[in-house]
Design a protein that fits this description.
Blueprint: H1 11-17, E1 21-22, H2 25-29, H3 33-36, E2 39-40, H4 49-64, H5 68-81, H6 84-87, H7 89-113, E3 121-125, H8 134-137, E4 143-145, H9 150-154, E5 165-169, H10 171-176, E6 190-191, E7 205-206, H11 217-221, E8 232-233, E9 257-258, H12 270-281, E10 286-289, E11 295-298, H13 330-335, E12 339-346, E13 353-364, E14 370-380, E15 383-390, E16 393-394, E17 397-398, H14 400-406, E18 410-413
Parallel strand pairs: 1-2, 9-13, 11-15
Antiparallel strand pairs: 3-4, 3-5, 6-7, 8-12, 10-11, 12-13, 12-18, 13-14, 14-15, 16-17
Helix pairs in contact: 1-7, 4-5, 5-7
Protein backbone atom coordinates (compact mmCIF):
# COMPACT_ATOMS: atom_id res chain seq x y z
CA UNK A 1 0.00 0.00 0.00
CA UNK A 2 1.45 3.33 -1.09
CA UNK A 3 1.75 6.00 1.57
CA UNK A 4 0.64 9.42 0.45
CA UNK A 5 2.54 12.27 2.05
CA UNK A 6 0.69 15.57 2.19
CA UNK A 7 2.73 18.72 2.90
CA UNK A 8 1.58 20.56 6.02
CA UNK A 9 1.94 24.36 5.95
CA UNK A 10 3.98 25.68 8.91
CA UNK A 11 1.10 27.52 10.58
CA UNK A 12 3.24 29.07 13.33
CA UNK A 13 5.71 30.45 10.78
CA UNK A 14 2.85 31.81 8.66
CA UNK A 15 1.26 33.43 11.73
CA UNK A 16 4.57 35.16 12.51
CA UNK A 17 4.86 36.39 8.93
CA UNK A 18 1.41 37.94 9.05
CA UNK A 19 2.43 39.97 12.11
CA UNK A 20 4.95 41.96 10.04
CA UNK A 21 4.62 45.72 9.51
CA UNK A 22 5.67 46.81 6.01
CA UNK A 23 8.09 49.76 6.09
CA UNK A 24 10.27 51.81 3.81
CA UNK A 25 14.06 51.29 4.14
CA UNK A 26 14.61 54.57 6.01
CA UNK A 27 12.02 53.80 8.66
CA UNK A 28 13.31 50.24 9.03
CA UNK A 29 16.91 51.35 9.63
CA UNK A 30 15.81 53.49 12.59
CA UNK A 31 14.46 50.47 14.50
CA UNK A 32 16.43 48.42 17.01
CA UNK A 33 17.69 45.01 15.90
CA UNK A 34 14.93 43.30 17.88
CA UNK A 35 12.17 45.54 16.52
CA UNK A 36 13.33 44.91 12.94
CA UNK A 37 12.22 41.29 13.35
CA UNK A 38 8.62 42.55 13.51
CA UNK A 39 8.94 44.60 10.32
CA UNK A 40 9.51 43.90 6.65
CA UNK A 41 11.53 46.16 4.40
CA UNK A 42 13.90 45.77 1.46
CA UNK A 43 16.79 48.17 0.98
CA UNK A 44 16.29 49.99 -2.29
CA UNK A 45 12.54 49.30 -2.50
CA UNK A 46 10.18 52.00 -1.27
CA UNK A 47 7.02 51.07 0.55
CA UNK A 48 4.28 50.43 -1.98
CA UNK A 49 3.21 47.93 -4.63
CA UNK A 50 6.72 46.57 -5.26
CA UNK A 51 7.37 45.89 -1.58
CA UNK A 52 3.95 44.24 -1.28
CA UNK A 53 4.83 41.99 -4.23
CA UNK A 54 8.05 40.81 -2.56
CA UNK A 55 6.23 40.33 0.76
CA UNK A 56 3.50 38.29 -0.96
CA UNK A 57 6.07 36.13 -2.75
CA UNK A 58 7.72 35.21 0.56
CA UNK A 59 4.29 34.57 2.05
CA UNK A 60 3.67 32.15 -0.84
CA UNK A 61 6.97 30.42 -0.10
CA UNK A 62 5.75 29.78 3.45
CA UNK A 63 2.16 28.81 2.65
CA UNK A 64 2.79 26.79 -0.54
CA UNK A 65 6.42 25.79 -0.14
CA UNK A 66 7.67 27.43 -3.34
CA UNK A 67 11.43 27.34 -3.92
CA UNK A 68 13.87 30.23 -4.27
CA UNK A 69 13.78 30.03 -8.08
CA UNK A 70 10.00 30.54 -8.00
CA UNK A 71 10.48 33.55 -5.72
CA UNK A 72 12.96 34.96 -8.25
CA UNK A 73 10.45 34.47 -11.05
CA UNK A 74 7.66 36.28 -9.18
CA UNK A 75 9.90 39.25 -8.35
CA UNK A 76 12.11 39.25 -11.45
CA UNK A 77 10.92 42.57 -12.88
CA UNK A 78 11.43 44.33 -9.55
CA UNK A 79 14.95 42.95 -9.19
CA UNK A 80 15.87 43.62 -12.83
CA UNK A 81 14.86 47.28 -12.57
CA UNK A 82 17.55 47.64 -9.90
CA UNK A 83 20.11 45.54 -11.73
CA UNK A 84 20.34 43.07 -8.86
CA UNK A 85 20.14 40.05 -11.16
CA UNK A 86 23.48 41.09 -12.72
CA UNK A 87 25.28 43.38 -10.24
CA UNK A 88 24.28 41.75 -6.96
CA UNK A 89 22.50 38.40 -7.48
CA UNK A 90 23.27 37.49 -3.87
CA UNK A 91 20.85 40.19 -2.66
CA UNK A 92 17.84 38.25 -3.95
CA UNK A 93 18.85 35.11 -2.11
CA UNK A 94 19.61 37.11 1.05
CA UNK A 95 16.11 38.63 1.02
CA UNK A 96 14.56 35.20 0.56
CA UNK A 97 16.70 33.19 2.96
CA UNK A 98 16.71 35.75 5.77
CA UNK A 99 12.95 36.13 5.87
CA UNK A 100 12.00 32.49 5.34
CA UNK A 101 14.55 31.32 7.91
CA UNK A 102 13.29 33.85 10.46
CA UNK A 103 9.74 32.62 10.00
CA UNK A 104 10.69 28.95 10.34
CA UNK A 105 12.84 29.53 13.42
CA UNK A 106 10.14 31.57 15.14
CA UNK A 107 7.60 28.91 14.22
CA UNK A 108 9.87 26.20 15.64
CA UNK A 109 10.21 28.18 18.88
CA UNK A 110 6.44 28.32 19.25
CA UNK A 111 6.19 24.58 18.62
CA UNK A 112 9.04 23.61 20.95
CA UNK A 113 7.76 25.89 23.71
CA UNK A 114 4.63 23.74 23.95
CA UNK A 115 6.53 20.54 24.76
CA UNK A 116 9.30 21.63 27.12
CA UNK A 117 8.04 19.29 29.85
CA UNK A 118 8.61 16.24 27.65
CA UNK A 119 11.53 17.71 25.66
CA UNK A 120 13.34 20.12 28.00
CA UNK A 121 16.67 20.28 26.13
CA UNK A 122 17.55 22.10 22.94
CA UNK A 123 20.51 21.38 20.66
CA UNK A 124 22.11 23.90 18.33
CA UNK A 125 22.43 22.51 14.82
CA UNK A 126 24.68 24.05 12.19
CA UNK A 127 24.68 22.63 8.66
CA UNK A 128 28.45 22.02 8.86
CA UNK A 129 29.22 22.24 5.16
CA UNK A 130 31.65 24.49 3.31
CA UNK A 131 29.40 27.52 3.82
CA UNK A 132 29.01 27.21 7.58
CA UNK A 133 30.65 30.07 9.45
CA UNK A 134 33.37 29.06 11.87
CA UNK A 135 31.73 30.57 14.96
CA UNK A 136 28.39 28.94 14.07
CA UNK A 137 30.20 25.62 13.56
CA UNK A 138 31.65 25.99 17.08
CA UNK A 139 28.08 25.88 18.45
CA UNK A 140 27.09 22.72 16.55
CA UNK A 141 25.87 19.94 18.80
CA UNK A 142 25.87 22.00 21.98
CA UNK A 143 22.94 21.14 24.25
CA UNK A 144 21.44 23.53 26.80
CA UNK A 145 18.20 23.52 28.80
CA UNK A 146 15.50 25.32 26.80
CA UNK A 147 15.42 28.22 29.28
CA UNK A 148 19.20 28.69 29.57
CA UNK A 149 20.47 32.27 28.99
CA UNK A 150 22.60 30.88 26.13
CA UNK A 151 19.56 30.96 23.85
CA UNK A 152 18.95 34.65 24.54
CA UNK A 153 22.02 35.28 22.38
CA UNK A 154 22.31 32.23 20.14
CA UNK A 155 18.77 31.29 19.13
CA UNK A 156 18.98 31.36 15.29
CA UNK A 157 19.25 33.06 12.96
CA UNK A 158 22.68 34.35 13.94
CA UNK A 159 23.64 36.21 10.78
CA UNK A 160 22.57 36.99 7.24
CA UNK A 161 21.59 33.81 5.34
CA UNK A 162 22.25 31.76 8.48
CA UNK A 163 20.88 28.21 8.07
CA UNK A 164 21.33 27.08 11.68
CA UNK A 165 18.42 25.63 13.61
CA UNK A 166 17.47 24.15 16.98
CA UNK A 167 16.42 20.57 17.77
CA UNK A 168 14.41 19.75 20.90
CA UNK A 169 15.37 16.62 22.83
CA UNK A 170 13.98 14.53 25.65
CA UNK A 171 16.16 13.48 28.56
CA UNK A 172 16.14 9.93 27.18
CA UNK A 173 17.39 11.13 23.79
CA UNK A 174 20.20 13.10 25.40
CA UNK A 175 21.37 10.01 27.29
CA UNK A 176 20.95 7.67 24.31
CA UNK A 177 23.09 9.91 22.10
CA UNK A 178 25.73 10.43 24.75
CA UNK A 179 25.25 14.19 24.67
CA UNK A 180 26.44 16.56 27.35
CA UNK A 181 24.04 19.17 28.75
CA UNK A 182 26.09 22.37 29.01
CA UNK A 183 25.82 24.74 31.96
CA UNK A 184 28.51 27.35 31.20
CA UNK A 185 27.64 29.91 28.53
CA UNK A 186 30.55 30.18 26.05
CA UNK A 187 29.32 33.50 24.63
CA UNK A 188 32.04 36.14 24.48
CA UNK A 189 34.85 33.71 25.27
CA UNK A 190 37.93 33.42 23.05
CA UNK A 191 38.20 30.42 20.73
CA UNK A 192 40.59 29.24 18.01
CA UNK A 193 38.53 27.85 15.10
CA UNK A 194 39.96 25.07 12.97
CA UNK A 195 39.21 25.07 9.25
CA UNK A 196 37.44 21.73 8.64
CA UNK A 197 38.84 21.43 5.10
CA UNK A 198 42.49 22.25 5.74
CA UNK A 199 42.89 21.61 9.46
CA UNK A 200 44.53 25.02 9.78
CA UNK A 201 44.00 26.73 13.13
CA UNK A 202 42.78 30.30 12.76
CA UNK A 203 43.73 33.15 15.10
CA UNK A 204 41.72 33.37 18.34
CA UNK A 205 38.54 35.46 18.26
CA UNK A 206 35.46 36.16 20.35
CA UNK A 207 32.69 33.59 20.16
CA UNK A 208 29.70 35.74 19.20
CA UNK A 209 26.89 35.75 16.65
CA UNK A 210 27.23 38.08 13.66
CA UNK A 211 26.79 41.77 14.46
CA UNK A 212 23.12 42.67 14.87
CA UNK A 213 21.94 39.10 15.51
CA UNK A 214 22.71 38.56 19.21
CA UNK A 215 19.11 38.22 20.40
CA UNK A 216 16.48 35.52 20.80
CA UNK A 217 14.27 35.79 17.71
CA UNK A 218 11.72 33.37 19.16
CA UNK A 219 11.17 35.43 22.31
CA UNK A 220 11.15 38.74 20.41
CA UNK A 221 8.56 37.48 17.95
CA UNK A 222 6.46 35.98 20.71
CA UNK A 223 5.80 32.55 22.09
CA UNK A 224 2.59 31.02 23.33
CA UNK A 225 -0.04 33.50 24.51
CA UNK A 226 -1.61 32.17 27.71
CA UNK A 227 -3.00 35.48 28.93
CA UNK A 228 -3.39 39.08 27.72
CA UNK A 229 -0.01 40.65 27.05
CA UNK A 230 1.15 43.81 28.83
CA UNK A 231 3.54 45.93 26.80
CA UNK A 232 5.61 48.96 27.74
CA UNK A 233 7.34 51.36 25.39
CA UNK A 234 10.98 50.53 24.77
CA UNK A 235 13.46 52.90 26.37
CA UNK A 236 15.68 55.48 24.66
CA UNK A 237 13.39 56.02 21.67
CA UNK A 238 13.46 59.24 19.67
CA UNK A 239 10.83 61.92 20.22
CA UNK A 240 9.40 64.98 18.44
CA UNK A 241 12.50 67.15 18.82
CA UNK A 242 14.61 64.51 17.03
CA UNK A 243 12.37 64.91 13.99
CA UNK A 244 12.14 68.70 14.13
CA UNK A 245 8.59 68.65 15.53
CA UNK A 246 7.12 71.09 18.04
CA UNK A 247 5.58 70.16 21.37
CA UNK A 248 1.78 69.93 21.00
CA UNK A 249 1.32 72.99 23.17
CA UNK A 250 3.53 75.00 20.81
CA UNK A 251 2.05 73.97 17.47
CA UNK A 252 0.99 76.99 15.43
CA UNK A 253 -2.80 77.43 15.18
CA UNK A 254 -2.70 77.31 11.37
CA UNK A 255 -1.22 73.79 11.56
CA UNK A 256 -4.20 72.43 13.51
CA UNK A 257 -7.52 71.28 12.11
CA UNK A 258 -10.74 72.76 13.43
CA UNK A 259 -12.26 70.44 16.01
CA UNK A 260 -15.00 68.31 14.43
CA UNK A 261 -18.57 68.91 15.51
CA UNK A 262 -19.33 65.19 15.56
CA UNK A 263 -18.11 64.21 19.04
CA UNK A 264 -20.76 62.30 20.93
CA UNK A 265 -21.91 63.72 24.26
CA UNK A 266 -20.22 62.31 27.35
CA UNK A 267 -22.15 60.52 30.06
CA UNK A 268 -23.91 57.92 27.92
CA UNK A 269 -23.99 54.23 28.85
CA UNK A 270 -21.83 51.47 27.35
CA UNK A 271 -24.91 50.12 25.57
CA UNK A 272 -25.62 53.52 23.97
CA UNK A 273 -22.05 54.00 22.80
CA UNK A 274 -21.87 50.44 21.49
CA UNK A 275 -25.07 50.98 19.50
CA UNK A 276 -23.60 54.16 18.02
CA UNK A 277 -20.45 52.29 17.05
CA UNK A 278 -22.34 49.43 15.39
CA UNK A 279 -24.54 51.88 13.49
CA UNK A 280 -21.47 53.44 11.88
CA UNK A 281 -19.02 50.57 11.51
CA UNK A 282 -20.92 47.30 11.93
CA UNK A 283 -20.15 44.28 14.11
CA UNK A 284 -17.16 43.18 12.01
CA UNK A 285 -15.84 46.72 11.75
CA UNK A 286 -14.87 48.79 8.73
CA UNK A 287 -11.56 48.85 6.85
CA UNK A 288 -10.24 52.25 5.78
CA UNK A 289 -6.97 53.45 4.29
CA UNK A 290 -4.97 55.55 6.72
CA UNK A 291 -2.89 58.62 5.82
CA UNK A 292 -0.06 56.33 4.67
CA UNK A 293 -2.36 54.27 2.48
CA UNK A 294 -2.27 51.26 4.81
CA UNK A 295 -5.52 49.34 5.38
CA UNK A 296 -6.64 49.56 9.02
CA UNK A 297 -9.72 48.09 10.67
CA UNK A 298 -11.98 50.24 12.81
CA UNK A 299 -13.42 47.68 15.19
CA UNK A 300 -14.87 47.19 18.65
CA UNK A 301 -11.57 45.72 19.83
CA UNK A 302 -10.23 49.24 20.44
CA UNK A 303 -12.90 49.73 23.12
CA UNK A 304 -12.57 46.38 24.92
CA UNK A 305 -10.94 46.26 28.35
CA UNK A 306 -9.83 42.63 28.04
CA UNK A 307 -9.06 41.84 24.38
CA UNK A 308 -9.11 38.08 24.91
CA UNK A 309 -12.51 38.19 26.63
CA UNK A 310 -14.18 39.71 23.59
CA UNK A 311 -17.39 41.64 22.93
CA UNK A 312 -19.36 40.86 26.07
CA UNK A 313 -21.30 43.00 28.51
CA UNK A 314 -19.13 44.73 31.08
CA UNK A 315 -15.98 44.49 28.95
CA UNK A 316 -16.12 47.98 27.40
CA UNK A 317 -14.26 51.19 28.13
CA UNK A 318 -16.69 53.43 26.24
CA UNK A 319 -17.64 55.30 29.39
CA UNK A 320 -14.02 55.89 30.40
CA UNK A 321 -13.23 59.59 30.00
CA UNK A 322 -12.70 60.57 26.35
CA UNK A 323 -13.37 57.14 24.81
CA UNK A 324 -16.93 56.72 23.56
CA UNK A 325 -17.17 60.36 22.48
CA UNK A 326 -14.68 59.85 19.60
CA UNK A 327 -16.72 57.19 17.80
CA UNK A 328 -17.94 59.48 14.98
CA UNK A 329 -14.43 60.82 14.23
CA UNK A 330 -12.44 57.55 14.28
CA UNK A 331 -12.06 57.49 10.51
CA UNK A 332 -10.86 61.09 10.48
CA UNK A 333 -8.30 60.31 13.20
CA UNK A 334 -6.81 57.63 10.95
CA UNK A 335 -7.04 59.34 7.57
CA UNK A 336 -6.23 62.91 8.63
CA UNK A 337 -3.92 62.66 11.66
CA UNK A 338 -1.45 65.26 12.76
CA UNK A 339 1.24 62.54 13.08
CA UNK A 340 1.73 58.77 12.93
CA UNK A 341 4.41 57.15 15.07
CA UNK A 342 5.77 53.61 14.79
CA UNK A 343 6.54 52.64 18.39
CA UNK A 344 8.41 49.48 19.48
CA UNK A 345 7.01 48.05 22.70
CA UNK A 346 8.21 45.16 24.84
CA UNK A 347 6.66 42.68 27.25
CA UNK A 348 9.01 42.76 30.23
CA UNK A 349 7.95 39.28 31.36
CA UNK A 350 8.82 37.35 28.21
CA UNK A 351 10.80 39.74 25.99
CA UNK A 352 8.20 39.80 23.24
CA UNK A 353 8.32 42.88 21.01
CA UNK A 354 5.50 44.44 19.04
CA UNK A 355 5.32 47.45 16.76
CA UNK A 356 2.33 49.67 17.44
CA UNK A 357 1.19 52.56 15.27
CA UNK A 358 0.10 55.65 17.15
CA UNK A 359 -2.11 58.15 15.36
CA UNK A 360 -1.98 61.59 16.96
CA UNK A 361 -4.72 64.13 16.21
CA UNK A 362 -4.57 67.78 17.20
CA UNK A 363 -7.57 70.06 16.93
CA UNK A 364 -8.47 73.57 17.94
CA UNK A 365 -11.92 74.70 19.05
CA UNK A 366 -13.46 78.06 18.10
CA UNK A 367 -12.50 79.13 21.62
CA UNK A 368 -8.83 78.36 20.76
CA UNK A 369 -8.72 75.36 23.05
CA UNK A 370 -6.45 72.50 21.94
CA UNK A 371 -7.76 68.92 21.92
CA UNK A 372 -5.47 65.96 21.28
CA UNK A 373 -6.65 62.53 20.16
CA UNK A 374 -4.87 59.18 20.10
CA UNK A 375 -5.54 55.92 18.25
CA UNK A 376 -3.24 52.92 18.86
CA UNK A 377 -3.10 50.05 16.34
CA UNK A 378 -1.21 46.76 16.18
CA UNK A 379 -0.86 44.03 13.56
CA UNK A 380 -2.92 40.89 14.14
CA UNK A 381 -3.39 38.21 11.51
CA UNK A 382 -2.09 40.47 8.78
CA UNK A 383 -4.37 43.38 9.69
CA UNK A 384 -3.85 46.60 11.60
CA UNK A 385 -6.49 46.53 14.33
CA UNK A 386 -7.30 48.81 17.23
CA UNK A 387 -5.84 48.70 20.71
CA UNK A 388 -7.35 51.96 21.96
CA UNK A 389 -8.91 55.22 20.74
CA UNK A 390 -9.76 58.29 22.82
CA UNK A 391 -9.18 61.96 23.59
CA UNK A 392 -7.23 61.98 26.89
CA UNK A 393 -8.85 64.10 29.60
CA UNK A 394 -7.74 65.11 33.08
CA UNK A 395 -10.16 66.72 35.52
CA UNK A 396 -12.48 67.52 32.64
CA UNK A 397 -9.83 69.26 30.53
CA UNK A 398 -7.94 67.99 27.45
CA UNK A 399 -4.73 66.27 28.53
CA UNK A 400 -2.08 67.23 25.96
CA UNK A 401 0.72 65.91 28.15
CA UNK A 402 -0.60 62.35 27.99
CA UNK A 403 -0.47 62.36 24.19
CA UNK A 404 2.90 64.12 24.28
CA UNK A 405 4.33 61.11 26.13
CA UNK A 406 3.11 58.81 23.36
CA UNK A 407 5.09 60.58 20.64
CA UNK A 408 8.04 58.18 20.63
CA UNK A 409 9.71 55.87 18.15
CA UNK A 410 9.91 56.52 14.41
CA UNK A 411 7.87 59.34 12.91
CA UNK A 412 6.35 57.89 9.73
CA UNK A 413 3.82 60.65 9.01
CA UNK A 414 4.17 63.37 7.98
CA UNK A 415 7.31 62.42 6.11
CA UNK A 416 10.35 64.40 7.18
CA UNK A 417 11.24 66.90 4.45
Amino acid sequence: MAIKVTPVPPKEAIAFWKEKVLLGPGEYRKLSDEAKLKAFAVSGIAKGAELETVYSAINKALTEGIAFRDFQTQCREIFQRRGWDIKAPWRMETIFRNNVQDAYNVGRYRQMSRVTTARPYWMYSAVNDGRTRLHHRAMHGKVFPHDHPFWDTWYPKNGHRCRCSVISLSEQQVKARGLKVETADPTGKMFEPIDPRTGVRHPARLLLPDSGFAYHSGKVAGGIDTQPQQFTTQKNLKGPADFGRRALGNVRPQEMALAPQGFLPSGQSDAQYRAEFLKRYGESGTVVRDALGDPVRIGLRAFLINKSKGDVAGNYKFTKSGHGVVIPVLEQMLTQPYEIWLTPQINDDNGRVRLSKRYVSLWKTPEKQRIAGLVVMEVMGGELVGVSAFTPMREGEPDLEYVERQRKGVLVYPKKK
